[in-house]
Design goal:
The protein is of the alpha/beta class and 407 residues long. It folds into 3 domains: 3-55, no CATH class; 72-258, Rossmann fold; 283-406, NAD(P)-binding Rossmann-like Domain (Rossmann fold). It has 13 helices and 19 strands. The strands form 4 sheets. A 7-stranded mixed beta sheet has the order 8-7-6-9-10-13-12. The protein has a 6-stranded mixed beta sheet with strand order 16-15-14-17-18-19, covered by helices on one side. Helix 11 links the parallel strand 14 (312-315) and strand 15. Helix 5 (149-159) packs parallel to helix 6. The termini are far apart.
Length: 407
């Protein structure tokens, strides 16, 4: 049975089948192996509204829950990034001290705490109760729940309309996007703005970073597809700013139609996307072929290292690693464990592939011969932190934008 586009209802077919896949952040114990749940991870392109999306996605409550293991503040790079974003918003979009800021996907409050510290009235929306408690410990006001049209009405009734709506790597997670966008329309003041950033489609295509596709990412936005989704809600993109986070993201500033003049950057990005072929199905067929080559090259390299009896450890049990491990069929015969600094993941096993997750200190006791860099979007931060590994002859394995050995 065919599927219809989540945005415009047009019939869609997959351009990429990544096979049976567990939830990306469902780290588990050995006792839970037998009951592990998989779904078919397939990405589709809508020829009508141009949106790239998953054909199927697990229930939101099963992905974002009390035990959600990701903390934004665990990365010093992300903490610095959010501090810079907060500074920019405070300088350009907060009209006076009585302003009201709403953020969805607040996580541990790494972004919103800067508004709390500045004395700005705010509200964070976070469905994962565990990380919501961490945000509260930072002095952030948090409502634990999912953002949609109904919640927006509730917020306006209780707290009034918002000057600024924020979301960092969150909007792409929301399969019921029209309800969330209508929520933004309801929530914003007439001159208010929504600022959100998500992994950018053109970066994914250019870098063959197919690991951006996993259960939580219902969509991979381009400016073209996002504007098509915004239009029915009387919203439009008024500014765009490329970001380095998450391996290539785009920050979109959105407002009510006719209330702000779009920047020249918006027009330039529309033109660049048209030239790059984001509206052409052939672009996605070529991407699929490159993904297949990346898989073959990585498995070939790991097979060679195994035959040479080299020790390989994974570095960073990121969500992206789940896609790579399961699509490529990489198990403990190739990679003995994954080192990660997140306490909630340590002592558990990776989804599907069941690689042990060990503390960061295990990386040095002793160093492996090779480290497979799953958290490649934090490569600069990681390589600086692990200079001693390289100094002692250790080498990094990268697979974005192509499979190669670093160092």
């Amino acid at each position: 049975m065919g599927k219809n586009c989540l945005i415009c209802g047009f019939p869609i077919e997959p351009f990429l089948d990544l096979g049976p896949m567990p939830k990306a952040n469902a780290f588990l114990s050995e006792e839970e192996f037998a009951g592990e749940i998989f779904f078919d991870l397939k990405a589709a392109f809508c020829p009508s509204c141009k949106m790239v999306q998953l054909l199927d996605q697990p229930a939101r409550e099963s992905m974002f829950h009390d035990g959600y293991p990701f903390l934004s503040g665990s990365s010093s790079h992300m903490a610095s990034h959010f501090q810079s974003l907060a500074r920019d918003v405070l300088e350009h979009f907060i009209p006076d001290p009585t302003a009201f800021v709403v953020e969805i996907g607040t996580n541990d409050g790494t972004l919103l705490k800067h508004f709390s510290e500045a004395g700005i009235r705010h509200l964070g929306i976070e469905p994962s109760a565990g990380v919501a408690r961490a945000a509260q410990e930072h002095g952030v006001q948090v409502h634990s729940g999912f953002f949609d049209e109904a919640l927006a009405l509730h917020i306006v009734r209780d707290s009034g309309p918002a000057d600024v709506f924020l979301a960092a790597n969150v909007m792409c997670h929301i399969s019921y996007l029209h309800s969330a966008l209508e929520g933004i329309r309801i929530l914003l003041k007439t001159k208010g703005v929504a600022i959100f950033e998500d992994p950018y489609l053109c970066d994914m295509l250019r870098q063959t970073s197919y690991d951006q596709i996993y259960d939580e990412h219902a969509f991979v936005f381009s400016l073209t597809s996002l504007q098509n989704a915004l239009q029915p809600h009387g919203l439009r993109v008024i500014d765009v700013n490329p970001q380095q986070t998450h391996g290539g993201s785009m920050r979109y500033t959105v407002a009510r139609e006719g209330e702000h003049v779009p920047s020249k950057g918006v027009e330039k990005l529309f033109a660049a996307e048209k030239k790059s072929g984001v509206a052409d199905f052939s672009t996605y067929e070529k991407f699929r072929i490159r993904c297949g080559k990346s898989k073959k090259d990585l498995v070939r390299l790991l097979t060679d290292l195994k035959q040479k009896r080299k020790r390989v450890l994974g570095y960073g049990a990121a969500s992206k690693s789940t896609t790579v491990l399961n699509f490529c069929g990489i198990g403990r015969e190739f990679v003995e464990a994954i080192c990660d600094s997140t306490p909630a993941k340590q002592g558990k096993f990776s989804p599907g592939a069941h690689l042990p997750i060990v503390p960061s200190r295990a990386f040095r006791a002793p160093y492996p011969d090779f480290a497979l860099l799953f958290a490649w979007n934090h490569a600069k931060e990681i390589l600086e932190k692990e200079k001693e590994f390289t100094a002692q002859g250790g080498k990094w394995i990268a697979y974005v934008p192509e499979v190669k050995i670093l160092g």
